[in-house]
Amino acid sequence: MAEHAHSTPAPTRAAESRAHILAALIAPFLIALAVFGLGTPDPVTTGRPTAIEVVR
């Protein structure tokens, strides 16, 4: 067995916990954004571009 099995400093463990919590909060938002993007029609295939073209 390792002599110092639990020798990770507390600030390092806290930073890892914060990173995991942040990832757990951001992941559902990114998934919802991707699903919403898949649900919107493609402006090229529908023939209705959303940007107004400037004519010179």
Number of strands: 0
Question: What order do the helices and strands follow?
Answer: HH
Overall pLDDT score: 78
Decide which structural class fits the backbone: mainly alpha
Strand content: under 5%
Q: Could you give a short account of the major beta sheet?
A: none
Helix content: 55-70%
Shape, please?
A: rod-shaped
User: What distance separates the N and C termini?
Assistant: 76 Å
Helix count?
2
Write up this protein.
The protein is mostly helical and 56 residues long. Helix content is 61%, strand content 0%. It is rod-shaped. The model has no long low-confidence stretch (mean pLDDT 78).
Keywords:
mainly alpha; transmembrane helix; transmembrane; membrane
TL;DR?
The protein has helices at residues 10-39, 43-46.
Task: Summarize the SSE layout with pairings.
Layout: H1 10-39, H2 43-46
Keywords: Membrane, Transmembrane, Transmembrane helix
Transmembrane segments: 21-39
